[in-house]
Structures are given as structure tokens and as C-alpha cells.
Amino acid sequence: MQHLTRDNLMSLEQYAKARPTFRADVLAHKRDRQVAIGPHATLYFEDRLTIQYQVQEMLRIERVFESEGIEDELGAYNPLIPDGSNWKATFMIEYGDVEERRVALMNMVNIEHRVWVQVYGHGRVYAIADEDLERTTEDKTSSVHFLRFELTPAMVAAVRSGAAIGMGIEHEAYSHTVSAVPENVRQSLAADLTDATANPALVGRRYA
Predict the structure, then answer these.
(1) CA angle (73 as vertex; 69, 78 as ends), nearest 5
(2) Phi/psi of residue 5, each to 5°?
(3) Is residue 83 predicted with pLDDT exceeding 80?
(4) By 3-state DSSP, what share of the chain in percent is helix, strand and coil, each rounded to 5?
(5) Of 17, 36, 103, 178, which residue is 20 to 30 A from 188 by alpha carbon distance?
């Protein structure tokens, strides 16, 4: 899957005009790319479209229009785009109550390494976590992690052929399994392995 360049981005003025439609499209797209694992953990799978949205939003919020600043944002977010043989996801641990979250994060040290995906007929693939920086200390984990799931060629072929995809977390403080993700999610994740673009339905659409 191709990384983003400055040529793929809208200017601040263009984005201001396009944002309502673009944002609605991206939010609809994201609904097919998230998997709740138990009541307090969710995987939000990234792709070229979700990362473009994130970069555009950061540029908008920070009012960045100079080349150096734009390249910095691209350098930070491009590694989150899947490479064709893997899935990349933002992993979030979510508790509404602040104190409950604090205690949970203390009990979930290293949980990010115990998140897995499984293509039907193959073994579990555990996450490679936080390759940019360490987010866990000896005392607690973070509520946000960035994960990569690297698939074998046989797994990729199986997904392309329609194999089911399961996911789960195997940690002493939090253990839950999703036996098979919904078909809309499965198809969206399969597109990461078969297409150079995140969402063919949106290719070529003009927002500006």
C-alpha cells in the first residue's frame, strides 16, 4: 500500500471546503475497520484513507502549511499504513471511569504484546507493538498502542480466498476472544492485502 506524499494532500483552504464530505466518508469507512475485543478494548485498523484523514486533521488543527511541517506529519503517520502483508491498528483500552481505568492499566502491563489475530486454518499472530516508542512502564501500560500483525504468504492467500478472521487478547488481567469478525470488517481487512488503495469506492473522488 503506497505511502502518502504531499501531492496526495489537500491544502488547508481545499480541506476546509472538502472536510464535511470527506469526514463523513472516512467515518463511514472506519465503521468497517474496528473490532471490539471484550467491553474495554478496541482495535481500530488503519489504512491509507484513515491516515490521510489523520494527517489532514493534524495540519488543520496546527495550521501547518510549510513544507517541513507537512513532511514531519507524513513521516510520523506513514508508518501506520499497512504494507500489503500485514495489518496495522491503533489499540485502545477504554474505560469511562478515570479511577477504574487507572487500576486497569496497572494490571494490564504488556497487554499490547498479547493481542492476536488468527486466519482460519492457521496459527495465531501476536502483535508487534509500539515500534516507534515504548508506551509501557513497569507499573502500568498506556491506554493507546500501535500494533502490527505480520501475516505469512499462506495467511494472505487464505484471507484473499475468503477465510474467516478471529481476534483476541490473552492476558491474565483481560482475556477475550472474537471468533470471527463480521463480514464487512473481513472484507475491509482483506482489501489491505490485495489492493494498493484503502477503499476502491473512494478512488478518484474529488473533494476539493
Answers:
(1) 145
(2) -125, 175
(3) yes
(4) 45, 20, 35
(5) 17
CA neighbor of 114 nearest in space, from 102, 125, 100, 130: 125
Q: Which pLDDT does position 195 carry in this prediction?
A: 43
Residue 133 phi/psi, 5-degree rounding, is -165, 155
First to last CA, the chain: 23
* Low-confidence winner among 3-12, 134-143, 194-203 (lowest mean pLDDT): 194-203
Strand partners, 145: 91
Q: Answer for the pair 53, 19: CB distance below 8 angstroms, yes or no.
A: no
pTM of this prediction?
0.87
Average pLDDT along the chain: 91
Beta bridge partners of 141: none
Residue 208 has pLDDT above 60, yes or no: no
Helix (H, G, I), strand (E, B) or coil at 41: strand
Name the strand (E) or helix (H) holding 1: none
- The residue with cell 516507534 is 132
